[in-house]
C-alpha cells in the first residue's frame, strides 16, 4: 500500500530506497528529493528538536556509490517519466522538483568521500535534466567545513549551481549546548560560516523554539543580531536568513519541553534582522 506524500510525512524509506527519499517541502513549495548518507542515524550533534529515531553520535558510514547512482537515476526517471505523483497522491500544484537536498538522518558532511558524492549527484541530476532548473542544496550544521574533502565538496556544489543551508540555531554558548549539544564553540561555527560563504552561496538556517515556556529571550536575540553584524563587517554575503519553528514532534528526550514559537514572534525577529540589511524568509 502506497502512503500519501504530505508535508508532515518525512519518512526516509517511503520510496523503498536506501539513500534517496521524497519530501513534500513546506519551505521549498514542492517535491524535494532527499539524499540520506547517514543511514545509520548517526550525527556529530544531537539537536533537541531532531526527528530522527534512535539518533546516535557518530559519522556517516561508507557509501555504496554505485547503488546511490542507480537509485537516483531510477527515482528521477520515476518522477519525470513514471507515475510517481499519481501513486503518492501528490497535489497538482506540488508536482514539480524544487530541489535535490543532501540532508537525511545525520550530518552529511561526515561522509568520508563527501566531495565525490556531491559530484556524482550533480552529474546524474544534470544528465536527467533536473539541474540546473531545480536547486541543489546541502543542509549542514557546518561543523566540518574545515575539512579539505568538505571544502572540495562545497566547490563542486557551487559548480552545479548549488547552495548551502548552514545551521545556526543560537549565537550563545549556552544556547548551542542546549539546542544542539554541539561540542563546537560559537566562534568556530562563525569561522566555518565565513569559509563556507566564500566557497559556495550560503543561506543561514535557524530553528527557533520555545523551551520550557521561556520563549525567545532578549539575550538570544541580541547575541544573534550581534553575530550577524560581525559577519557582515567581515564581508560575509549571506543569500538569506531562514527562520523557522518546529512543526512536528521531536524524537529526542526533551520533546515534551518543546513548543513552536508564535508567528508574531518569528515575524518581529525577522524585521529586526532585515534592518541589518539581510534578506529574511520565515517558515511556519
Describe this structure in words.
This protein has 284 residues and is an alpha/beta fold. It has one domain: Aldolase class I (TIM Barrel, Alpha-Beta Barrel). It has 8 helices and 12 strands. An 8-stranded mixed beta sheet has the order 1-2-5-6-7-8-10-12, with helices on one face. A two-stranded parallel ribbon has the order 3-4.
List keywords for this structure.
284 residues, alpha/beta, TIM Barrel, eight-stranded mixed sheet, two-stranded parallel ribbon, 12 strands, 34% helix, 20% strand, globular
Write the layout of secondary structure elements.
Elements: E1 20-25, E2 30-36, E3 42-43, E4 56-57, H1 65-81, H2 84-87, E5 97-103, H3 114-127, E6 135-140, H4 148-159, E7 163-167, H5 173-180, H6 186-199, E8 202-207, E9 209-211, H7 218-233, E10 240-244, E11 258-260, H8 263-274, E12 280-283
Kindly report how far apart the N and C termini lie: 30 Å
The tally of strands reads 12
Mean pLDDT rating: 94
Strand order of the largest sheet: 1-2-5-6-7-8-10-12
Helix-and-strand structural type: alpha/beta
CATH fold title: TIM Barrel
| Helix and strand sequence | EEEEHHEHEHEHHEEHEEHE
Q: Helix share of residues?
A: 25-40%
Main sheet?
Answer: 8 strands, mixed
Question: Could you name the CATH homologous superfamily?
Answer: Aldolase class I
Rough shape? globular
CATH class: Alpha Beta
Cofactor: [4Fe-4S] cluster
Organism: Methylobacter tundripaludum
Domain Radical SAM core: 38-208
Pfam families: Radical_SAM
Amino acid at each position: 500500500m502506497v502512503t500519501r506524500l504530505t508535508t508532515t510525512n518525512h519518512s526516509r524509506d517511503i520510496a523503498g530506497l536506501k539513500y534517496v527519499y521524497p519530501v513534500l517541502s513546506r519551505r521549498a513549495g514542492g517535491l524535494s528529493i532527499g539524499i540520506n548518507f547517514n543511514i545509520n542515524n548517526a550525527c556529530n550533534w544531537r539537536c533537541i528538536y531532531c526527528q530522527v529515531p534512535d539518533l546516535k553520535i557518530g559519522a556517516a558510514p561508507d557509501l555504496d556509490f554505485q547503488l546511490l547512482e542507480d537509485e537516483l537515476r531510477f527515482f528521477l526517471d520515476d518522477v519525470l517519466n513514471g507515475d510517481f505523483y499519481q501513486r503518492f497522491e501528490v497535489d497538482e500544484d506540488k508536482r514539480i522538483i524544487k530541489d535535490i537536498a543532501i540532508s537525511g538522518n545525520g550530518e552529511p558532511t561526515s561522509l568520508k568521500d563527501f566531495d565525490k558524492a556531491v559530484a556524482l549527484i550533480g552529474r546524474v541530476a544534470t544528465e536527467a535534466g533536473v539541474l540546473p532548473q531545480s536547486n541543489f542544496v546541502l543542509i549542514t550544521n557546518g561543523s566540518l567545513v574545515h575539512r579539505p574533502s568538505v571544502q572540495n565538496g562545497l566547490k563542486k556544489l557551487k559548480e552545479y549551481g548549488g547552495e548551502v543551508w548552514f545551521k545556526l540555531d543560537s549565537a550563545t554558548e549556552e544556547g548551542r549546548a542546549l539546542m544542539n549539544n554541539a561540542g563546537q564553540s560559537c566562534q568556530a561555527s562563525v569561522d566555518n560560516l565565513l569559509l563556507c560563504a566564500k566557497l559556495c552561496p550560503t543561506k543561514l538556517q535557524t530553528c527557533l523554539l520555545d523551551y520550557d515556556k521561556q520563549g525567545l529571550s532578549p539575550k538570544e536575540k541580541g547575541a544573534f543580531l550581534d553575530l550577524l553584524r560581525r559577519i557582515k563587517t567581515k564581508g560575509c554575503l549571506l543569500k538569506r536568513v531562514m527562520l523557522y519553528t518546529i512543526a512536528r514532534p521531536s524524537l529526542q528526550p526533551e520533546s515534551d519541553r518543546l513548543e513552536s514559537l508564535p508567528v508574531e514572534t518569528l515575524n518581529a525577529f525577522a524585521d529586526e534582522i532585515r534592518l541589518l540589511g539581510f534578506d529574511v524568509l520565515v517558515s511556519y
